[in-house]
Amino acid sequence: MAVIAIIAQGAMGAGIGRRLSQRGATVLTSLVGRSAASAQRAAAAGMRDAIAAELAGADIFLSVLPPAEAKACAAWLAPALAAAPRKAVYVDCNAISPATATEVAAIIAPTGAAFVDGGIIGGSPREDGYTPVLYVSGPEADRLAPLSEHGLDVRVTPGPVGAASALKMSYAGITKGLVALSSAMMLAATRAGAAEGFRTELARSQPQLLAWFGRMVPPMPDKAYRWVGEMEEIADFTGPEAAAIYQAIAGFYEGMAADQAGTGEKAAALAAFLKDPA
User: Fold this and answer.
1) Which residue, 119, 162, 232, 258, has fewest beta-carbon neighbours within 10 Å?
2) CA neighbor of 102 nearest in space, from 71, 59, 72
């Protein structure tokens, strides 16, 4: 039976933990400094609270956090990894740029633990069997077979550490970038009194795009606060070609997060725009 450690217990971390525990793995986590809601999610997912030494001695350690916390997590676990006689394979699954992934790998390297670069594409595992894809890269990527054996969809992408992060950045730059662009235009059309005509034209000439917007935009306001840092990482990844674009998109998501924490006016306007008139 594999022992998998996961930090932390957000929707994705808890969802992965639940899938692994349901498929027979022992799943560890740390609740130090976490909220009561995090503790409840962990318990519901079958995740057991453990000290750092236990996490460091697991078969695999998964870091599943907001991008800004990736390096701090590695620095927190590094002393326990260095002291562990049997070290976990450290997998950074966060939405970070290849440059940031390299920095995380450099924190882990002195501990003697193996490092794998990862990137998750898709939503949290669901009870209906849906599973996101965890892309991994680097010379130690093949060591993650236990994750596949316990219900995750793990795929090795060719390339060094950073390749999986680059794949994630490229994919999210399109999908979450398009969510931001479409949302901004829906809001602008609504303010200008053109929402009905704009939606009618999308239904006529871009029905597949409109259907995609209908699936992807409504859940966005609840996630916008998490996507700010991801867009900033994508700006770093693209460099001069598109950094300004993704910094602006980060600003858009920051505004959506503030709206969601406040009146929810923008979220309501988007929902109204996408409501099927039929």
Assistant:
1) 258
2) 71
